[in-house]
Amino acid sequence: MTVKKNVELRKEYSSIIAIDMGARWVVVSVALHHSKPKFYGMRVREVRGKYFWLRRKLGREKKLLAIKRTGHKEKRVVNNTQDSKGNC
Question: What's the pTM value of the predicted model, to 2 decimals?
């Protein structure tokens, strides 16, 4: 499904929002009317750190089945955070 809409181009805008999906910080948004960018990603860093710690701990205990059982939960949480911040 494709939707097309004709819009007028303006020379000046009252506000512009730019969103950067980066590697170090997951999402950075910058608004023209604000002087500082907003960094989102603390939740993603917490989740990645938690699962890194859990995989390392279970690997040292040789519980590979438990590592497999965690599945793709880390990926799901990270993708959910990226999608929710990227669509704002």
Answer: 0.57
